[in-house]
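Read as amino acids, tokens; as here:

___
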Amino acid sequence: MRRLTAHFIPAVLSLACAMPPAAAWAQQATSLPPNDAPSPAPNVHPDVRLPTLNTPVRVEDIKVSGNKQVSTGAIMAVVPFHVGSMVTQAQITQGLQDIMKLYQQQNVGGKFHQSLNLDGKRVKVEWAIEETGGPAHFDKPLVLESLGFDGNLHVSTSALKQAVHRQPGEQVTPATVLADEKAIQALYVKKNIGVTIVPESRAPHKDERVTLTYHLTEKAND
């Protein structure tokens, strides 16, 4: 959804991160396309251009809403910038991922939405959090039975398997899945390709074994 105000041309980037119990803990989206820079709204003059993904902009405001189980102070403590900082859109997105990692460390499920209101070299950041119930507790790690990828058209499956750290037979946790997602994203960044990563876990044997599939949506540069 795009909005237009008198002074700001906002671009809304959103992602969802859910932490339900048992093996389904890996069913979460924790990455944004690294090159998914916003574009002007349809009724904006064609000469108006928004900053590119890697152009530093000044943070004018940061708003966090919806958080109840994790304090705003704890959230802002993990964000690597503050009001007045010069940051790129990629760094802002990394800040959101740091918040998501904090929620995982606290074992609190949630969905996270990021909105960037851009005006020239200024940006207002809004993070809306939908906490999904109480903490998700895990008694012990699960054993990875199989690992798969789909949607990868520009990066080979063999390259993806080499990029991740956990292989079948090894133990996995929410933290290791997040680390592997970042490894996959880093591989795509090297190739200058945007990607959204959604891991999906299943427990077909109803025990401690889990299958893990990374669903990838690629976005190559034009």
Remarks:
- The CA atoms of residues 196 and 217 lie 5 Å apart.
